[in-house]
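Page 42, continued from yesterday. The earlier attempt failed because a stray header line got pasted into the input along with the sequence. Redoing it now with the clean sequence only.
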Amino acid sequence: MSLRDAIATHLPDLRAIRHDLHAHPELAYNEHRTCALIAAELARLNIAHISHLAPGPNSTRGTGVVAHLPATASTAPGTRAVGLRADIDALPILERTGAPYASTTPGLMHACGHDGHTTMLLGAARILRDMPRPKPITLVFQPAEEGGGGADRLCSLGLMEGKVLGPPIERMYGLHAWPDLPLGTIGTRAGPLLASTDEFEVDLVGRQAHAAYPHESHDPIVAMAACISALQTVVSRTVAPTDAAVVSVCQVRGGTAINVIPERVFFQGTLRTLRAATRAACRERIIDTISGIASAHRCTAEVRWHEGYPVTVNDETLTREFLDRARSTLGPERVVEVPSPTLGGEDFAYYAQRAPSVFFFLGLRPPTSTTYPTLHQPDFDFNDDAMATGVEMLCTAALA
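This time it went through. Structure tokens are written below.
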């Protein structure tokens, strides 16, 4: 039986698993039901695994699962494994898909396709278990990609060095559902693919006063408005036009009454960059801009900087090899070499810092559609018809 035919026999089962995961979304480090489902499926397949790994900052019981398939051929001592990774967490978004398997937990949903990622890796586990394996394969079901840095926690356990299960991992692969690409295609690029993801929080403190007597205030709302406007020039006046960066302010809070100028306001945002030098220069410019404008408005600024995920960098040689295999497997018309990075972020970057890695996009958009709900939108749903391609490419990568 061919790889493609083997995958086809499992697709009805995999769809049911994906729908079950979609109906029961769980946030970062709270994916306990998801962890149990993954472990039960691996146990049914008689695949060695360890569960409850990488607890979050406020828990003692982790939700990560690592499984391992040994090589079926005799290998030299010290042979390293191929790693495949899926993320398992959901988002705090109220679902509006109308799907019969929609979220049963109000306010939570799988709006980023992680239910599909998890299911495809379980599908790959089913297929790979029954195939000749020239190298050991480690399967990583990772919690807390959505801001929790679950990859970093697993790496800190020594995952990549073989301290969790199986030998050290010599190369790592991961994928992400991608609404901008046509169904049945995959895409990636060598070098930077996704951006670093820093965050900043700002408290502006002034002097409170009655709204009728603004001259007695040090108005932090006016200062905040000036800061937000000025931050829109950080990229255009700090970053070369041939480079890329994004500064976005996404949350503001301030005031308690219509006739009171408050003492304190708050805003927060994110910085996305592709180069270390750009990242450092923009951070300095953002902090200086906020501090200077606050001072000019007779306010003080308390800026808290949170360094986020690194840039996700695909290994040049491994990516070229992966693209060649994808063209041979799927046909050249179904393989897209992504022309430029996206400013989204991924904690897959932590694996790529430790071993040559490839992260790739899996097309979701049906051929009859010109648009498709995008990631993190309330009407987004992973396209089940993409599952076969995703499983095929995970298996192809593992068996190379």
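Notes: The chain is about 30% helix and 25% strand.
Reminder to self: strip header lines before submitting.
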